[in-house]
Amino acid sequence: MKTFTFTLWLQRRIHWSLVFSLTGLLMSCGSGDIPLGVSSLNSRFTEEQPALSGNGRFLAFVSNRNGNQQLLMYDLQTQSFIPTPGLNRRATIAESPSLSYTGRYICYLTSEQGRPVIALYDRAMQQSQILTPTYRGWVRNPDISPDGRYVVFESASRGQWDVEVLDRGPTVELDISNGSTVSN
Questions:
Q1: For the chain, how big is the Rg over CA atoms in Å?
Q2: d(CA 103, CA 121)
Q3: Residue 49: how many CB atoms within 10 A of its CB?
Q4: 82, 84, 86, 105: which one has the fewest Cβ atoms less than 10 Å from its Cβ?
């Protein structure tokens, strides 16, 4: 009987020491000074792959804050998120963002039928389009020119990683700052 009482007493002590240890551990993993509001730049979740617009006002990055990977756009001047309807699709990954000068165009890598493709989101039109729908080989690391006309990326269409330049054409509406002139 004495052994049983000692074992029960020991189990209670171990139980409470575990409770206090885990509580202390959880409290030490607090957020610290990271703001956690809806409009704060950083969150408790992973934020990565930042891209800055040419004028320094907008920031695009990949975040896991809503339970899935998504591409977010943040206005550094107003310190708020920019709505981007139609940018993030369900069950697809968006990564490697690149911004034009004023952030009108967001070029990024996504997937189409299980293959990586390069997409372009136009904030003025609130639409995304795939730029490489029938491209041979794998693609990665897209980057858009400040005016939004050219997109460069790496491709493996020849069995090695090469640099490709995609010209969106002379009729594309350029991304220029207000009051700037367009030179031919």
A1: 24
A2: 10
A3: 16
A4: 86
What domains are there in the chain, each with its CATH number? 47-167 (2.120.10.30)
Q: What are the average pLDDT values for consecutive 10-residue runs of the chain, which has 184 residues?
A: 54 57 45 47 84 96 85 94 89 91 96 90 94 87 96 92 95 78 53
Distances (CA, A) of 82 to 39, 43, 60, 123: 10, 16, 10, 10
pTM of the predicted model as reported, rounded to 2 decimal places: 0.74
Contacts of 102 (CB under 8 A, 6+ apart): 53, 54, 55, 57, 58, 175, 176, 177
Closest CA to 119 of 91, 84, 148, 110: 110
Q: Pull the structure tokens for residue 25.
A: 């551990």
Do the beta carbons of residue 124 and residue 130 sit within 8 Å?
no
